[in-house]
Amino acid sequence: MTISRRLLLASALAGSAALAAGPALAETQLSFFYPIAVGGPVTKIVDAMVADFEKANPGIKIKSVYAGSYQDTIAKILTALKGGDSPQVAVLLSTDMFTLIDEDAVIPYDELVKGDEGKKWFASFYPGFMQNSQANGKTWGIPFQRSTVVLYWNKEAFKEAGLDPEKPPQSWEEMRAFAQKLTKRDASGNVTQWGIEIPSGGAFPYWLFQGLTTENDAILMNQDGTKVAFDKPAVVEALQYWVDLGHKDKVAPSGLVEWGTTPKDFFEKRTAMMWTTTGNLTNVRDNAKFPFGVAMLPAKVRRGTPTGGGNLYVFKKSTAEQQAAALKFVQFMTSPEQAARWSMATGYIAVSPAAFETPALKEYVTKFPPAAVARDQLPCAVAELSTHDNQRVTKVFNDNLQAALLGTKTPAQALKDAQAEADRILKAYQ
Where does the secretion signal sit in this chain (predicted)? Predict the structure, then answer.
């Protein structure tokens, strides 16, 4: 080969390399905040989905930031916003919507997907999930890891107590009566198995309590998130029922029941029934060493549960290219195939009817019917408690619920106090 030909070949190869490097130079970088501590099976699932998205979209690179709890994640994001270092996309609680609007942090999806295309996309999700995703005529969040509260029961424990293992309680009175039969005590009178546990510790007592208030046909807030109804008689009655399970009926712990330990108590047969998120379904399936059932929550005046869980939000402090890439990412993560994949891997409800029509999820539900319970409960679900200044309002509510459950306040006084303080907080938004 002559020197001139070598030079030409070297020049051509250099040009090819430069062309190959072109897309990398034009790569769009997205910071994606996800609410979980680093490590564990859920992060592996998220990492795999992100990798598949990047493979399908080679011009977009996702940097996943595992930011701790939901509360940690919103706090970190609000701090980053003030420091000018906002993420482009994040999973946050659906109930964080008003906070994000008030902080002018997020862009409504209506500005990213306009007209009939946007309306068709928004209408593709279950309406129950959109209640905590839309406000002021706009769509601020897209449902991702969404849930309802469901009842889990140990079928072996039911059989031992003389109950039909295939029939969960259908009403408050049945749940109380079943729990009495299921509570076990040793010779010294110490409880070895509770009849029922409803988590009351941590950040989510209000959410479990909303299952009871909804069943008693009480709605806790208005649609605009500016007023609450904590002290209505039906709400007081619901809290009295919860308190009585522990203090009067003695079929549940009389102190606080921690959110994180409730499934462990169920696995170790320290409780025969529990209320928790459908997001625990895969955890229960993998760890319960006995046959179990999953049911809609028992009724009082009606069936009912709040929805729960997280939405995907796109942040304003990003370029037009980043917003377009973030939209692609959100549409990928909530597509029927990925929603089905996420639901089967975690237990969260697939967020659209189309996801339940995918061959994979149809087969999964056929083999594992409990996966359909939370979906079938959606028609009687209501929006999770969400207001302006939501973190402060829910803290006030939680603190007073816990005071009643601990016996330091009566249910009526606790809810009167919660109402007064919430009214004070929300006055600025009315």
Answer: 1-26
pLDDT tens digits, one per residue of 63-78: 999 999 998 999 999 9
For the chain, the straight-line distance linking the first and the last C-alpha, in angstroms and rounded, comes to 83
Determine the Cα–Cα distance for residues 21 and 16; give it in Å rounded to an integer: 9
**Residue 390 to residue 85: CA distance in whole angstroms:** 23
- Name 277's bridge partners: 149
Give the closest residue to 47 by CA, choosing from 36, 148, 58, 262: 36
Q: Of the residues 343, 361, 378, which one is the last residue of a structural domain?
A: 378
Q: Please list the ranges in the chain whose pLDDT falls under 70.
A: 1-26, 37-40
Closest CA to 58 of 27, 87, 35, 30: 27
Q: Helices (DSSP H) in 41-185: which residue ranges? A: 41-56, 70-82, 97-102, 115-123, 127-130, 155-160, 172-182
Residue type, 315: F
Tokens of 430: 């009315």
Alpha helices in 169-261 (DSSP H): 172-182, 205-215, 233-247
pLDDT digit string, tens, across residues 100-135: 999 999 999 999 999 999 999 999 999 999 999 999
Q: Which residues span the domain enclosing 295?
A: 148-307+383-429
Separation of CA 373 from chain center: 16
**pTM, to two decimals:** 0.88
- Cβ atoms within 10 Å, residue 222: 13
Taking phi first (over 0 means left), then psi (-120 to 50 degrees means alpha), and beta for anything else, what does residue 245 get? alpha
Per the CB < 8 A criterion, the answer to whether 308 and 148 are in contact is yes
| Shared domain check, 282 and 254 | yes
- DSSP secondary structure of 144-190: EEEEEEEEEEEHHHHHHTTS-TT----BHHHHHHHHHHH-EE-TTS-
Q: How many domains does the chain divide into?
A: 2
Q: Give the containing element (helix H, strand E) for 391.
A: helix 390-406
Name the 3-class secondary structure at 192.
strand
| Separation of alpha carbons 273 and 18, rounded Å | 63
